[in-house]
Amino acid sequence: MTAFQLRPKILTWITAFPLLVSCSGIPVTPISNAPPTPAVQVATDTPLIQNPESEIEFPGQLGFVTVPQPGKGSFDWQPASSNSQVVIFSEDAPIAPAANVRVIAPEVKAEAKFIQVSKQPYGCDGNQTTMASFSVAQALPEGIVWLASAQEADNISAVPLMEQPKTQPQQREWRAESLTIRQQVYSDYQVQTEILQQEKPLFQETSEKRVVEQVNSSPVDLYARSEVGIPQPLAVYQSGDLTLVIFWAASLEGTHFRGVVLDGTTSKSVDLAYLYYCAF
Question: How much of the chain is in helix, strand and coil states, percent to nearest 5?
Fold first, then answer.
């Protein structure tokens, strides 16, 4: 058992915020012009996740790259810090002060020195969130990284994720070596996300935009900076025969991060983190 373990939470893109009325009193409605297509996952007799409470087999933990000041990064959800380069959002704080940790990103595999576990400002209204913070001497890409023990990191690599040229407004595609991530709009508010290995479908999921009446009722724009409830891929990691694809999706009050683990024939999704930002 290492110091770094994923602790999945039972959330989904569509059901994370099933409120009909927000805190501000504005009605919030998932709207659809067509009946939703059930999410499809390739069946397996030996699932990568034995049950929703278990830890996934992909070693390590999701980390977040900090920015000097709030709102100064490419993503609104990036935490700010003046003395750390990476943080883990953790109520359990499962980080040993002497942990020998590596941070992994495309073209980066560097030592991450543990600083402390503390309450840090995040969001609005003076919110405080528990974070484990690390310093990293090497420059890091914006967004997220993967953290693992030094021994585990030897077998983990980050695969560059490249968005493909736009060919039509209703479809968006990314590639990571032989992996393809494809999104297709099939109604005003619904999107199908598909992961393929050499064009063989391994994972499919249907997502629905959360609509705030009179505020956010326009149809889904796949190329928008974000659409509430619609996931976007962030990173791809490999460890042996396993591949981990990480997605993020805005919610009405924060941001969800999910991973899809693939072994070439099967797939399974798990929630990695939810960052609460501000009450709606």
Answer: 0, 45, 55
Query: Taking the CA of residue 135 as centre, how many other CA atoms within 13 Å lie in the half-sphere pointing to its CB?
Result: 7
Contact 219, 138 (CB under 8 A): no
129 & 76 share domain: yes
Asked if 39 and 72 sit in the same domain, the reply is no
Asked whether residue 163 is assigned to any structural domain, the reply reads yes
In a domain, 12, yes or no: no
Residues 79 and 169 in one domain: no
Please count the structural domains in the chain: 2
Name the residue range of residue 168's domain: 28-46+159-276
What does the pLDDT look like over 133-164, one tens digit per residue?
Answer: 999 999 999 999 999 988 899 999 999 999 99
Report the distance separating Cα 145 and Cα 63, nearest Å: 5
Q: How confident is the model over 195-247, as pLDDT tens digits?
A: 998 888 999 999 998 887 766 778 889 998 888 999 999 999 999 999 999 99
Rounded Cα–Cα distance for residues 258 and 244 (Å): 10
What's the whole-number mean pLDDT along residues 63-78? 88
Nearest to 261 by CA among 107, 47, 11, 39: 47
Report the C-alpha gap between 262 and 157 in whole angstroms: 15
For residue 1, tell me if it sits in a domain. Answer: no
Residue that is last in its domain, among 128, 156, 184? 156
Average pLDDT over residues 253-265: 90
Res. 13: pLDDT tops 50: no
